[in-house]
Structures are given as C-alpha cells and as structure tokens.
Known about the structure:
The protein has helices spanning 38-47, 71-84, 96-109, 140-153, 167-182, 201-210, 225-233, 249-255, 281-296, 303-323, 331-342; strands spanning 24-31, 59-66, 89-92, 113-115, 133-135, 158-164, 186-193, 214-218, 239-242, 263-266, 347-348, 353-354, 370-375, 378-381. By secondary structure, it is an alpha/beta fold. α3 (96-109) links the parallel β3 (89-92) and β4. α1 packs across α10, α4 crosses α5 and α7 (225-233) runs parallel beside α8.
Amino acid sequence: MNRLKPIFALAIAFAVAPAARADVIKAGVTIALTGPAASLGIAQQKTVPLLPQEIAGQKVEYIVLDDGSDPTKAVANGRKLAVDEMADVLIGSSTAPSSLALVEVASEIKVPLISLAASAKIVSPMDDKRKWAFKTPQNDSLMAAAIAGHMAKAGVKTAGFIGFSDAYGDGWLAEMKSALEAHKIGLVAVERYARPDTSVTGQVLKLMAANPDAILIAGSGTPAALPQKSLRERGYKGTIYQTHGAASADFLRVSGKDAEGTILPAGPILVAAQLSDSNPLKAVGTAYTRDFEAANGAGSITTFGAHIYDAGILLANAIPVALKSAKPGTPEFRAALRDALEGLKDVTCSHGIVTMTPTDHAGHDSRARVMVTVKHGQWMLID
C-alpha cells in the first residue's frame, strides 16, 4: 500500500510508453547525480520512488537524467527532455547556476519548470522568462533575514562572509548585505571559493584577520564543510552560520566535530519530529522522513530530497486543474499546467505552506523556516 496517498490530495503515476500519449504525463528531471552537488541530487533521485503513482487516471513517469552539476549539461538535458521526450514539465536542477540556465530553456520551449535550487533569481524579478519557472526551496532572502535576526539577538556586531563563487554565492552575498544592514551589523570581510576547491586556507586567514564576531558560509552540500573545518582548525572561536544549503547528514559527516554549534535556517522537514503537534507541516515531514529512511537508512533524510518531494505535491494539486482544459503531451497542457501551478493556494508541503501568485513563484512565508543548531552531531531545533 502506498502510504503517501493521505498526504497528496491526488495521486500521480509515471510511465514512458509513447503510445496512447493522452494517457501519460511526463515529468523530465535533470539533477546533479555526479559532480560537486551530487550530495543534493542523489537524495533527490532516491526520493523519486516515494512519489505517488497515479492522478485522475493518468500515468506519469519521471525521466531522470544526470547533469553532473554542470549548467551546460543541464541545458542539454532540459532540451532533450522537453523536445525529444515531450515532457509536460521539467524538474531541476539541484543547483542555482544550472536552474538559472534551465529558465532559459523553459521559457523558450514554453514548458513549466520546477526548480530544486534556492536562489531567488530563479523566480524574481518576474518577467516573460521567469513566468515559466517555479521553485520549491525557500528563497535565500527569506533565510538571510532569519540569520541576520538571530545574529542581532545574539549580540553580533560584525560578520564575515565566505561563499561559492557562482550564482548561489552571489545571491546570498546580496541578500546578507541587505539583511545585516537592516540590523546594523557590519560586514567586515568577504571571501569566495569554488565548489570543487580543496583548500580555502588563504580565504580563512583573511577572514580571521578581520576578527568578525560571526561568519556565514554560503555553500551547499558537502562543499559547505570545507570552510567550516578550516575555520575551526585555524582556531576561529566565533559563531559559524551556514545556509539551508548545508542542511544534510553529509554535511554533518564531513564536518564531524567541527560542525558543533553551527547555526542555520532550514525547512521544517529537517527537524520534523521536533515540531509541535499543532504544526501542520509535521504530518507531511514525518511521513516523508519515515518512508525515505525506511528505504535508505536511519538518519539519511535531507532537505534536498524533500525539495523534489514537494515538487510532487505541487504537481499533485496542479495537474487535475490542467487536465480540465487540455490533454498531456500538448503545448496547451503545458500552458494549462503553468497556469495551475501559479494558481495554487495554501498547499501544505514538507518545507512550508505554499501560495503562488503571478509575482511569487516560490510561495513561502515565515512558516517555511526554523532555526537549528548542531548538538552532538545532530540537528536540533532552536527557534
């Protein structure tokens, strides 16, 4: 029996047979199964079998391709899925650079895209290209405000920043500058590094020379652990903050004892069992955690897998609406599905309660974030 059915208003199923196309809905997925972001994409791939199997009598299949954490490959995959496979919706990719590249594909071909990456630039500012793009992770602006607010309450006066030298780091730096300024916290040092880097010694020494009260690391997946370990190994005693891109067991494993005391904002799914029973997100989060860990082992849950899980929830609510006006496998259905996604209201996902609008294709509010810390190698709810 599929235990996910109570969570999804309607079930969906996935199949590839080209015959009887009107009876098939295709979802093309391009994610990072290899490369620096593999720890994100693998959790997403492992979540695909947990998605429901049928919707309104229609069969659907996730066609999963690896983009190797490479935007160029993500574009090639997106075109293959949308053109050759005639996918009704694209899902991916795992990172901001690849997702931003996919926005171009989605808008050109006019197929809805549900990104699994955090950068607000994927969906804003809204324009003719971004109107085809949606996303399940929280915008970095929402999380940056939480970090700066926590810093202010903790008495932090000065902060340092080290982040990826790509769109993810760019977005976080811009948002943190604004959030820190709002709380009158001085940004005294800024450093960048590449996802594949194996050393950040030079950057860490510069950060420590500025002597900030706290440092934010704007990385994701296991590469977020590199500055974390280097800062602690060099004797940094201040508070280290991470973004929600580090919210995984892989980050804890790689960072080891150096992760202790780290603070970050995360989707409620990360600590679902610790949520109040009155929190409407608890039921969705604990069900996903139960089923994912049953298949992959205790403690294997990540917020990244939940991003594609939430994409399934959004589709489960939007597809029935689109089916009322068009048949799968047609441009009309793609357009109807885009409109249906944009019209979703109060949809309970694992990360938050989503309400889309023509100008907001992420749809999250403050209910989509909690503050957590690392204690004895475990994520613990602190706010």
